[in-house]
């Protein structure tokens, strides 16, 4: 069976649904530190599980005969700046638990998400290469950079089959994001529909790499299904779909909500966003395991407004 840690999060929720439709509800165990939505709880087996508790994790692995783990539990960039040690503990100890289970051959395959947050202010900003300067300036970015090193180490030292993607900012409608710097790109659609206005916490010209959740989920399953010999990178793969600024996103929304108004009130998250790349070179993901994005900003806006607004655009 498959176990998802952090199944109630922005990615975890959709990963649970995708894996359940692919492998059957009963073969995918969702788990999180607290219960999720009614829909998620009704869709298959669920366990309350703290991903930093090795003994509890080992017990669930044995009970459900888990062979594959998706570790989606983490504290994201904005919240991690407020609680650095709690973020480090959650992000790192959950990873050590899962890598150890891999080393002990108690599980066969692991997915662990990294992020464009591993890059810092002196990283080449546009078309950021797969391998380049990485001096992250946030707690979250430091934890993701360190996590990547450990994944690579456990693979080469102990043969652990761990696979990873550096997700850009993710846009989705099924679950709200939690404590990220890119969350404006989700909130803006909700506010455009409910109030026709939004106050953005980033500057109008802050370009960031972004991806629609359906692309991110498809990439994750594609990476996990790929032949292990094709996975040349065991730290984490750059992945990209689109890049845009809040101003460009506003123009996209105004194609459908013509009187939508945006205002800007940058907060501490502006400095985090400014330290990240504006676009990513994902040529290695494309060449190693055939990645290809499908959603651009126009299609993302159409899909978000249709699903949140409840009527055909
Ligand atoms: C965050 N959504 O904002 C996450 C992601 C690239 C951004 O890591 O922290």
UniProtKB/TrEMBL annotation:
Domain NAD-dependent epimerase/dehydratase: 2-226
Gene3D superfamilies: NAD(P)-binding Rossmann-like Domain (3.40.50.720)
InterPro entries: Epimerase_deHydtase, NAD(P)-bd_dom_sf, NAD(P)_epim/dehydratase
Domain of life: Bacteria
SUPFAM superfamilies in the record: NAD(P)-binding Rossmann-fold domains
Family indicated by similarity: Belongs to the NAD(P)-dependent epimerase/dehydratase family.
Protein name: NAD-dependent epimerase/dehydratase family protein
Organism: Pricia mediterranea
């Amino acid at each position: 069976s498959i176990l998802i840690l952090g199944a109630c999060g922005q990615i975890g929720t959709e990963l649970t649904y995708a894996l359940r439709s692919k492998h059957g509800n009963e073969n995918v165990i969702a788990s999180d530190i607290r219960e999720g939505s009614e829909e998620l709880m009704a869709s298959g087996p669920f366990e309350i599980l703290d991903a930093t508790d090795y003994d509890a994790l080992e017990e669930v692995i044995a009970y459900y005969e888990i062979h594959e783990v998706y570790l989606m539990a983490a504290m994201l960039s904005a919240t991690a700046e407020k609680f650095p040690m709690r973020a480090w503990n959650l992000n790192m100890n959950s990873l050590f638990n899962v890598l150890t289970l891999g080393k002990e051959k108690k599980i066969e395959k692991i997915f662990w998400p990294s992020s464009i947050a591993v890059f810092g202010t002196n990283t080449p900003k546009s078309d950021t290469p797969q391998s380049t300067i990485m001096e992250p300036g946030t707690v979250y970015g430091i934890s993701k950079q360190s996590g990547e090193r450990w994944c690579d180490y456990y693979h080469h030292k102990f043969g652990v089959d761990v696979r990873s993607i550096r997700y850009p900012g993710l846009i989705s409608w099924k679950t709200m994001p939690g404590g990220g710097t890119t969350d404006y790109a989700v909130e803006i659609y909700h506010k455009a529909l409910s109030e026709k206005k939004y106050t953005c916490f980033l500057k109008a010209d802050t370009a960031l790499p972004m991806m629609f959740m359906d692309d991110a989920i498809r990439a994750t399953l594609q990476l996990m299904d790929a032949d292990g010999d094709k996975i040349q990178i065991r730290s984490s793969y750059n992945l990209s779909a689109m890049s845009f600024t809040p101003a460009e996103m506003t123009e996209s929304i105004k194609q459908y909500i013509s009187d939508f108004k945006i205002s800007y009130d940058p907060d501490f998250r502006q400095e985090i966003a400014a330290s990240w790349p504006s676009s990513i070179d994902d040529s290695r993901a494309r060449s190693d395991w055939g990645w290809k994005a499908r959603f651009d900003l126009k299609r993302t806006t159409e899909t978000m407004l249709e699903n949140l607004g409840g009527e055909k655009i």
